[in-house]
Amino acid sequence: MAIFLDTSNITEIRKYNKMGIVFGVTTNPTILHKEGIKGGMGGLKAAIQEVTQLLAPHPVSVEVTTNDPKEMLKQAKEMAGWGDNIVVKITVHGPKGELDNMEIIHELETKHNIRVNVTAMMSAQQCFLAALAGASYVSILSGRVNNMGYNSIEEIKKLRFLLDRYQLKSKIIAASTREILNVTEWLCAGADIVTVAPNFIEGMLVHPYTKETVQMFLNDAAKAGH
Ligand code: G3P
Q1: Dist. CA 144 → ligand 1 center (Å)
Q2: Per the domain annotation, does 106 fall within a domain?
Q3: Atom 10 (ligand 1): residue with closest C-alpha?
Q4: Span 28-86, pLDDT tens digits
Q5: What total number of domains does the chain contain?
Q6: Contact 91/119 with Cβ under 8 angstroms?
């Protein structure tokens, strides 16, 4: 667990997966649009299946593309058939605060054995309700929370406490990373997973003083003729 990649870029996923540090992938319609995935539902399925096959058994989240409740349920079932490691992503409510999504999340998890990642959440209380409904993953968009002037670390801590106290199985995904620092601070606050854009991995790994130190070792090895 710990690190998921928030991308659909297969080259980047392959690159970091080979290092053994990727334990899942999350996508959303915005990410897929930026990546230029076209071809309707067939195009989406092809792109997602490339990722599911590469990453299996690690989970790959794909988001429903409709706000119509019946269509959402139908799409979620269809997407779940794209791979054993598919997790269907559903926003906690609709764009006008419509509440149908929660019923669908509950039904998918409890009646259809489909893993759901509930997304677009900005608070511990939203995530807590999604966890009660049975969500396998609850995504708090922590960077967006911070952007609104609230401290996402406090929300993650509260959520960790509530999930543990009521023995809820949901895994907390802290998403919407803005700074390299977010990864460890959100994990330390109690998130099970932080999902990051691929460039964050390089930012976490590469350190200027490490570069200098490695160069020193190489220079001295050369001087010693080893
Ligand atoms: O999946 C949610 C996450 O990707 C949102 O990130 O950067 O658009 O806030 P961002």
Answers
A1: 8
A2: yes
A3: 176
A4: 999 999 999 998 999 999 999 999 999 999 999 999 999 999 999 999 999 999 999 99
A5: 1
A6: yes
Decide: 160 and 172 in contact? Cβ < 8 Å: yes
CATH number where 15 lies: 3.20.20.70
210 located within any domain: no
Q: How confident is the model at residue 1 (pLDDT cuts 50, 70, 90)?
A: confident
Segment 165-168 long-range contacts (CB within 8 Å, at least 24 positions apart): 166/131, 166/132, 168/128, 168/131, 168/132
86: containing domain: 2-199
Distance 205 CA to ligand 1 centre (A): 22
| Residue nearest to ligand 1 atom 6, measured at CA | 176
Is the pLDDT confidence value at 125 over 90? yes
Type and span of the H or E element at 122:
none
Number of H helices, E strands in the chain: 11, 8
Instruction: Answer yes or no: is 44 within a domain.
Output: yes
Residue type, 79: M
Calculate how far, in angstroms, residue 169's C-alpha sits from the geometric centre of ligand 1. 23
Q: Report residue 221 CA to chain centroid gap.
A: 43
**Contact present, 90 and 102 (Cβ < 8 Å):** no
Whether 25 is in a domain gets the answer yes
